[in-house]
Specification:
2 domains, Immunoglobulin-like, elongated, single chain
């Protein structure tokens, strides 16, 4: 239903003669020697969005024209499943007679339903760069970036003390933000690695791999080999961010005679 409404909104806006920043609506074409030298979204880092808190991230466009750059407008961002976000007005600062760096911000607020679960993934910048002499550059996929659902993972089941060689059942709960109801829920089918760090070491070693069940629970069975810490690490995927659990400490008593 939401996607159908989005299509109807596009048709309505077109009928009214307004400008909507989605690639299927942009009909202008580039003209002259205006070009984009680079686009940076959030400093090149993945944007992680939780279930409720708004996230504002920077957008930077470097453009060039023989006459200089007047403005970057209109500009917006779009993603999967009709996802559209609005960018703030861009402020352009000349770095030479021909090149300018234009900066703005984009805010995504899941509580206001700016995004839905199926809109996580690869997003793009849609823009028009305007030069002082009337030339312009139009780009519908001028720069790509990753917007993902934030994830969390907890760990439990490690006893504070264990005998050497004892089998330990270590569990965790992998969950991610659901923009549909603004809560965290268990994430099924996610990969998680159980890692161990011996006491006094800074190096983590993967000792088991698990896939989360329908509730988001991950389970691994390992032998107690020495005093140290366990943690769960989930690398995430194209739609979901990575997560690391707090460390779980175990003190292991060596077998007699050792």
């Amino acid at each position: 239903m939401r996607k159908r409404i989005a299509v109807l909104c596009v048709a309505t806006v077109l009928a009214a003669g307004a400008v909507l920043l989605v690639p299927t609506v942009t009909t202008d074409t580039s003209q002259g020697d205006t070009r984009v030298l680079g686009i940076t979204v959030n400093g090149g880092r993945t944007i992680l969005v939780g279930p409720t808190e708004p996230v504002t991230f920077p957008l930077e466009v470097t453009a060039e024209d023989g006459s200089g750059i007047r403005s970057v407008s209109p500009i917006g961002v779009w993603g999967p499943s009709y996802g559209v976000l609005k960018a703030s007005p861009m402020k352009c600062t000349p770095t030479s007679h021909t090149v300018s760096v234009c900066r703005g911000t984009v805010t995504v607020d899941p509580a206001r339903k700016d995004v839905y679960n199926d809109e996580a993934g690869t997003w793009f910048v849609d823009l028009k760069v305007n030069a002082n002499d009337g030339d312009h550059f139009v780009g519908q996929t001028a720069g790509g970036f990753s917007l993902k659902r934030a994830a969390r993972i907890s760990g439990y089941g490690v006893p504070p003390h264990a005998d050497e060689g004892r089998e330990l059942t270590v569990k965790g709960w992998l969950n991610r933000s659901f923009w549909s109801d603004n809560k965290y829920h268990g994430y099924e089918g996610g990969t998680a690695y159980l890692q161990f760090r011996p006491h006094g070491s800074s190096h983590w070693t993967t000792v088991a791999t698990a896939l989360s069940d329908p509730t988001g629970t991950v389970t691994a069975r390992v032998r107690a080999s020495g005093t140290g810490e366990f943690q769960w690490y989930s690398p995430g995927d194209k739609w979901t961010g990575s997560a690391i659990s707090p460390p779980l400490t175990v003190t292991v008593a060596a077998k007699p005679g050792r």
